[in-house]
């Protein structure tokens, strides 16, 4: 007997027909709606025009490549869990993908079982951060001094002024805000905010925290030398 599908819309942007067919087939066994685009420009337009629960994105695409698609989605402050695929295993590709906001990363050829596991992990993490079908409620607003974080709408303001954050910057800030005064090692932040499989990329945490400090009062997130970072409740 077939198992019921999980309600979710997944967009696959992949130009290799055999890999796209494989992805759509196996993701379609688990999730209710899988849509495929093979061109970068068409894929970006589709990603921005409709609501999605996850994007599976190849890096090398005709038209606009996957890195640029990811960058534009994050620039628009549109939160969408992104799993990037690439035929290359270079350090540069992986670092670039993580730096611009990809949530996870897999190299081709990949195990279908592992891919499904990672997709499920991204879905769980997105749900935990309040990104899947949550209505805004007053109790979803976290206030720390003059900083206000709405976990449902993913809006942040400081002293009444809107603060524009990328999806990953928001996730990082929210994690700190939920655990004020607790010190986190970089490896812990990678595991919790970025997910498993990112060991050795602690510099990604550093760069995101530096960007976050440039957008909110830098005194909110402090460095605990030799350990990591923590959020203090007064700026």
From TrEMBL:
Signal peptide: none annotated. One of its GO terms (molecular function) is transcription cis-regulatory region binding. Residues 139-233 form the OmpR/PhoB-type domain. One of its GO terms (biological process) is regulation of DNA-templated transcription. Gene3D superfamilies: 3.40.50.2300, 6.10.250.690, Winged helix-like DNA-binding domain superfamily/Winged helix DNA-binding domain. The modification 4-aspartylphosphate is found at residue 58. Residues 9-123 form the Response regulatory domain. GO terms for cellular component: cytosol; protein-DNA complex. The keyword Membrane does not apply. Keywords: DNA-binding, Phosphoprotein, Transcription, Transcription regulation, Two-component regulatory system. Pfam families: Response_reg, Trans_reg_C. Residues 139-233 bind DNA. This protein is a positive regulator for the phosphate regulon. Transcription of this operon is positively regulated by PhoB and PhoR when phosphate is limited. This is Phosphate regulon transcriptional regulatory protein PhoB. It comes from Exilibacterium tricleocarpae.
């Amino acid at each position: 007997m077939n198992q019921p599908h999980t309600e979710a819309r997944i967009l696959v942007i992949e130009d290799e027909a055999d890999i796209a067919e494989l992805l759509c087939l196996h993701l379609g066994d688990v999730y209710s709606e899988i849509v495929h685009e093979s061109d970068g420009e068409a894929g970006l337009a589709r990603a921005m025009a409709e609501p999605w629960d996850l994007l599976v994105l190849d890096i090398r695409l005709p038209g606009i490549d996957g890195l640029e698609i990811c960058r534009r989605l994050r620039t628009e402050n549109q939160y969408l869990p992104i799993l990037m695929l690439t035929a290359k295993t270079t350090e540069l590709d992986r670092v670039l993908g993580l730096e611009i906001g990809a949530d996870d990363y897999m190299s081709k050829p990949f195990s279908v079982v592992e891919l499904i596991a990672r997709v499920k992990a991204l879905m769980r993490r997105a749900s935990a951060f309040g990104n899947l079908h949550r209505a805004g409620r007053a109790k979803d607003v976290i206030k720390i001094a003059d900083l206000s974080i709405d976990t449902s709408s993913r809006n942040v303001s400081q002293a009444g002024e809107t603060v524009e954050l990328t999806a990953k910057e928001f996730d990082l800030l929210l994690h700190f805000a939920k655990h004020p005064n607790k010190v986190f090692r970089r490896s812990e932040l990678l595991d919790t905010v970025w997910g498993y499989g990112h060991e050795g990329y602690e510099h990604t945490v550093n760069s995101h925290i530096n960007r976050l400090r440039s957008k909110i009062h830098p005194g909110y997130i402090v460095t605990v030398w030799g350990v990591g970072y923590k959020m203090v409740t007064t700026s």
